[in-house]
């Protein structure tokens, strides 16, 4: 069991990875969008290697605008990569309508706002059954919907069949959204801020549900969040993203108890449970169409601003030399000139 101290009450997690081959993998992924009025293209995702193993939960963490939602959409086939590739089960992700339809039966999305995800004119039954109908399910639809609702914690499921979203609590609506994903028996769920819109009293319940589904069904998950406390409670690994690139990654305990990148340190410092003085980052993240030379974080870096990087002899490198894309690896990794000087 993890020690408490970050965000929600810690959730027991006795999970051991059963395979070393990734279920989903990205290699050298880049996604750019055309600039306004012929200006430079925005590099929303600027070189990402990321693995998600079978039965593994990975948290993708970063500020708004860092590229994490664009990356998640690319993993779902909603945004085509400019370069690089996405593979699932060892096979490249096809972008034809037929290939994407088959893929999206195996990979499902859970959005942040359950109210916006559910049609107010559809009953709970119809909301959950929609995926079955899209994919031409030939089995017992009623039984499949009931099982999905039951797995999502809405019991007895028949009690919810004819209810409408406005008749449910926020937590119940999010469970309906999760049931709509589960009904297709996916292998991977991409959850974009899955508890951000919920009351604190319900957040822990939804996190515990996601963990239970992983343990019972072997589900993998990518959880997109700005909340490191959530990552602490639910994830096996965490990937910290800044300006289109992962800048620190590793097992969640390693990254969150001993962060190496100044950006990760700053994110952790503002949590209520942090024992470090809060780090207030100056300015906003740079425009992704004008990524600075050198380390992309250097203009806001508290280590550089304090002179600590200069004392370590890396200040010029921070301002001038770009860092390589972090490769897929099981242990902690960091893209930081200063952190490299402190490594054994």
TrEMBL record:
A Pfam cross-reference name: oligo_HPY
GO molecular function: ATP binding; ATP hydrolysis activity
InterPro entries named among the record's database cross-references: AAA+_ATPase (IPR003593), ABC_transp_ATP-bind (IPR050319), ABC_transporter-like_ATP-bd (IPR003439), ABC_transporter-like_CS (IPR017871), Oligopep_ABC_C (IPR013563), P-loop_NTPase (IPR027417)
GO biological process: peptide transport; transmembrane transport
Keyword hit for Nucleotide-binding: yes
Domain ABC transporter: 24-268
Annotated SMART domains: AAA
Keywords recorded for this protein, A-Z: ATP-binding, Nucleotide-binding, Transport
Homology family: Belongs to the ABC transporter superfamily.
PANTHER family in alphabetical order: D,D-DIPEPTIDE TRANSPORT ATP-BINDING PROTEIN DDPF-RELATED, TRANSPORT ATP-BINDING PROTEIN
Protein known as: ABC transporter ATP-binding protein
Protein species of origin: Streptomyces pristinaespiralis (strain ATCC 25486 / DSM 40338 / CBS 914.69 / JCM 4507 / KCC S-0507 / NBRC 13074 / NRRL 2958 / 5647)
